[in-house]
Structure formats: structure tokens, C-alpha cells
């Protein structure tokens, strides 16, 4: 089995050392960076499976690092921050982070989130063992889990790992209505949720990428007072 390599970027030595220690106990290979500039340098030099970013770092902050990483990779990104302001969480998610934890945090919670992100990310690829699971086809939308691509019309679009996972869950359960809590528990693989914004931000981002008119969505529809459902007409011609 290929070794999972994690990059941790945080300007607090105690946090870097703690995360490295506990993740190495899970047999992950871990590299650390003390600021955003070093994180980007390490990312260019090595192949990583997951990145943990502190929001507030010297030289280049976590938001900017996340933006630059998203231009070249769809691997899971977990954001850490000492801030508890709603705008910071929404900003982190809106620019491509897959999950978000506020300091101070439980180290066991962080490890659990990392393992869940990696497990879900790897499962997307393993689903390709079945052609039925690997290819979800609807009129105007094709989700290829083997190639890890999504095509809207004739255009291939880029999704993050979490966006693809959310779309896969919706498309695998068409017409079924899910609450925000149900979506979080199934897609983020956790019973823990501080608020609804994690789910709402990802749905908003997903709609912008797959819907012709995000304000009047065709695929991911809102069921007022309850949650969301996926509506898609199977493409019988394929």
C-alpha cells in the first residue's frame, strides 16, 4: 500500500510537533512548514495526499496558500485557525478547504478528521472497481469516478475532493431529500458539526460549477424547511 504523505503548515511549533507525532502514529509520513512560503516550496518538491493549513501564518497566509494549491490539486485540505469568526470559516471553505477546525482543538478530533478525509478520498478511486459505481450519467452531467472527472454538457470541470464526494453522494441517491446534518454525517463522515455553513458553502460552490443558473438549480434543488435533493434524468443514450 502506498504511503500517505501529509504536509502540515503552522507557525506554532507546539502544534506542528503535536500533529506530526500523532499522525506518524497512524503511519503517515509527515512534513512540516513554519509558514506559507515554505509550505508552497515543499509542495512543489514532494507529492502529498493531504495538507493541513493554519489560517494565520507569516509571509503567506493559509487562505492564499489554499488558493494556490487549489489551482493545481484536488487533494483534501484541512484548515486550522485560532479565529472563531463566522466569516473566517466561510472564507476558508469558499476558497477550497474541505474541512475546518478551530483552535484550541482536540488532537484526537483532528486525527479523526484527517483519517475520514483520506478514507473518503481513497474510496472515490476504489469505487472504480464497479463500472456502475464508477460512472454516474445524467442528461447534461457525467460523473466519472474512475477518471475523477465531472463533465457538464461537453465541458470538463474541476472539483475539489469534497465537492466531488458531495456530488457523488447526491447523484447516488437521486430524489432523496437530505438534511444538512445528514449530508455532513455521510459526506464528512462525522457526527460533529458546529453549524450548517460547511454544507451550505460546499453546495453553493458546487452549484456554481455544475448549474447553468445557480440561482435556479436544475440538479441540486432546495427542499424548503428540510434540506436538499438531487434531481437528474438518466441518460439512456449512453
From TrEMBL:
Q: Name one Pfam family in it.
A: Trans_reg_C
Q: Which domain of life is it from?
A: Bacteria
What does the UniProt entry say about where the protein is found?
Cytoplasm
On this chain, the residues bearing 4-aspartylphosphate are: 54
Keywords carried by this UniProt record: Cytoplasm, DNA-binding, Phosphoprotein, Transcription, Transcription regulation, Two-component regulatory system
Residues annotated as DNA-binding region? 133-232
Every Response regulatory domain range: 5-118
Q: Which residue ranges does the record assign to the OmpR/PhoB-type domain?
A: 133-232
Which positions make up the signal peptide? none
Protein's UniProt name: Response regulator transcription factor
Amino acid at each position: 500500500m502506498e504511503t500517505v504523505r501529509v504536509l502540515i503548515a503552522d507557525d506554532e511549533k507546539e502544534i506542528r510537533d503535536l500533529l506530526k507525532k500523532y499522525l506518524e502514529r497512524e503511519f503517515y509520513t509527515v512534513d512540516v512548514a513554519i509558514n506559507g512560503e515554505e509550505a508552497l516550496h515543499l509542495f512543489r518538491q514532494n507529492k502529498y495526499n493531504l495538507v493541513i493549513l493554519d489560517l494565520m501564518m507569516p509571509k503567506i497566509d493559509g487562505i492564499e496558500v489554499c488558493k494556490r494549491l487549489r489551482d493545481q490539486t484536488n487533494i483534501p485540505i484541512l484548515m486550522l485557525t485560532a479565529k472563531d469568526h463566522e466569516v473566517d470559516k466561510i472564507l476558508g471553505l469558499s476558497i477550497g478547504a474541505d474541512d475546518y477546525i478551530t483552535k484550541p482543538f482536540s488532537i484526537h478530533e483532528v486525527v479523526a478528521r484527517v483519517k475520514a478525509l483520506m478514507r473518503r478520498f481513497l474510496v472515490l478511486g476504489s469505487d472504480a472497481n464497479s463500472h456502475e459505481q464508477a460512472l454516474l450519467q445524467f442528461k447534461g452531467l457525467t460523473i466519472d469516478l474512475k477518471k475523477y472527472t465531472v463533465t457538464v454538457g461537453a465541458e470538463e470541470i474541476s472539483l475539489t475532493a469534497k465537492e466531488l464526494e458531495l456530488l457523488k453522494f447526491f447523484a447516488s441517491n437521486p430524489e432523496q431529500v437530505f438534511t444538512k446534518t445528514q449530508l455532513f454525517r455521510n459526506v464528512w463522515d462525522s457526527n460533529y458539526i458546529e453549524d450548517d455553513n460547511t454544507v451550505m458553502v460546499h453546495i453553493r460552490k458546487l452549484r456554481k460549477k455544475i448549474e447553468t443558473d445557480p440561482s435556479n438549480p436544475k440538479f441540486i434543488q432546495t427542499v424548503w424547511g428540510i434540506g436538499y435533493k438531487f434531481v437528474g434524468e438518466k441518460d439512456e443514450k449512453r
